[in-house]
Amino acid sequence: MKSDRQKHIRKNTTRPLTNGHVFLILLPFVLFVAAVILLHSFPSDRIEASIAPSPETFAAPTLPPASDLPDAAAVPAPGLIQDQVKSGDTADDLLAGHVSPGEIHALAVACKDVFPLSRIKAGQPYRILTENGAFAGFEYEIDRDRVLVVRRFQDRLVPAVVPIDYEVHLETVTATVNLSLFDTVTALGETPELAVRIADVFAWDIDFCRDIQPGDSFRVVVEKRYREGKFVCYGKMPVAEFVNQGQAYRGYCFENGKGGLAYFDPTGRCLRKAFLMAPLSFTRITSGFTHKRLHPILHYYRPHTGVDYAAPVGTPVWSVGEGTVTAVGYNGEAGKYVVVSHSGGLRTQYSHLSAYASGLKTGQRVSQGQTIGRVGMTGMATGPHLDFRLYQGNTPLNPRNLRGSATTEPVSPAKMAQFKKTAESLQALLDSAPGRDSARLGQAETPGTPAAN
């Protein structure tokens, strides 16, 4: 019985297809063919018209009011980190946290032959630029005239040293001295640097520590450098005049051949001489050269064959002339002292120092104005000061009489006409300044040269 049912089932499942089944299978194919024939029976332009969008469908979008648009200023600008190099800082210290170690190394390599980053100095400004959080550039002000600029171009860092772009004003500054040159200059609203610059011009003729008197006056023509409308520093000082105790000293800056720029008096003689008038600057004098002075510690009268300059501990002391260091030592009276021998049998001694210049030793050559030590109060001293002495052989001389011949050649005959023309134009600038003082010409000029009117 079971076997007959299974045979019946197999017989039904293998029954052949009928015409109805074939029609159902072919119906989709027939409909597809009919659609294709119908499609090709229409003209092409009617087809395009039937599918083209209406103007309303793709109209231009309406913009929001301008007040609702984002302001261009609101777009984040490139990042800027700026500061000054601090004592002990290296390039790694400046860039760490802003630049990856790999980029710091790449920056150092790129700058190596342009300006090595190992030469950065404390106090100098620097800037780090970023874009979208990535390092984009670096700037470091090498000095007042030059800046190191590094920019990223594609995958390279390109460094260059370029001049700082200043707005330069040529101005005349003139005043009558009241208490000191320093106080007078700062009272004008100028910086102490200008006082130093003036003193540097006449340092071979005037001792600004002890010779300045109320009523002295000065006039200078100087460049003032501005950045973004703010005063930054002084530039060139083409001419300066100082009237000291009725004597006028003038200096005109001029290039005289291989010697470079120097200051010359109206006759063309160089102001630079073999000896500076003082071994330090802008201090007050407390005791002068005398053969009878009450010693402040020993309390009896004894010769004081030198000049004492009161100054804060650490004030730089420089050699007044070129020479050779013949002694660097200490004794109970002079404390720490340095002796420098000069040409012509002259020697100078600097006592009561707090420290010697780094590396200073006997036999070393020093140049004029080179720092040899710092003011202190070692030895028999009641306060910080420098005891400065001058000897010819073993004979003490008054340092006030310390003078020497010019160390730079005068203006050459071939350039004298050019020098006189330059001096006349610069003098005209001085003469146009208000508050001029009448004075006789100082020792820097030859007899018979007319004084300033």
Feature tags:
3 domains, 8 helices, Nuclear Transport Factor 2, Chain: A, 453 residues, seven-stranded mixed beta sheet, single chain, ten-stranded antiparallel beta sheet, disordered N terminus
The termini sit apart by 153 Å
Say what the CATH topology of the largest domain is: Nuclear Transport Factor 2, Chain: A
Poorly predicted regions:
1-14, 36-77, 283-303, 435-453
Could you say which structural class the secondary elements and strand pairing correspond to? Answer: alpha+beta
What count of domains describes the coordinates?
3
Number of strands: 24
What share of the residues does DSSP label as strand, in percent?
A: 25-35%
| Helical residues, percent | 10-25%
What's the CATH architecture of the largest domain? Roll
Structure at a glance:
This protein has three domains: 87 residues, Nuclear Transport Factor 2, Chain: A (Roll); 157 residues, Nuclear Transport Factor 2, Chain: A (Roll), CATH 3.10.450; 118 residues, Distorted Sandwich (Glucose Permease (Domain IIA)). The protein is 20% helix and 33% strand.
Overview of the structural elements:
The chain has 453 residues and is of the alpha+beta class. The chain has three domains: 77-163, Nuclear Transport Factor 2, Chain: A (Roll), CATH 3.10.450; 166-273 and 405-453, Nuclear Transport Factor 2, Chain: A (Roll), CATH 3.10.450.350; 284-401, Glucose Permease (Domain IIA) (Distorted Sandwich), CATH 2.70.70. Helices cover 20% and strands 33% of the residues. It is built from eight helices and 24 strands. The protein has helices at residues 2-13, 19-40, 44-51, 91-95, 101-111, 181-187, 192-201, 416-431; strands at 79-84, 125-131, 134-141, 146-153, 156-163, 167-176, 217-227, 230-234, 239-244, 247-255, 261-264, 284-287, 290-294, 301-304, 307-310, 316-318, 323-331, 335-341, 346-356, 365-366, 371-375, 385-392, 395-397, 440-441. The strands form four sheets. Strands 12, 15, 16, 17, 18, 19, 20, 21, 22 and 23 form a ten-stranded antiparallel sheet that branches. Strands 6, 7, 8, 9, 10, 11 and 24 form a seven-stranded mixed sheet that branches. Strands 1-2-3-4-5 form a five-stranded antiparallel sheet, with helices on one face. Helix 6 (181-187) crosses helix 7. Mean pLDDT is 77; it is low at 1-14, 36-77, 283-303 and 435-453.
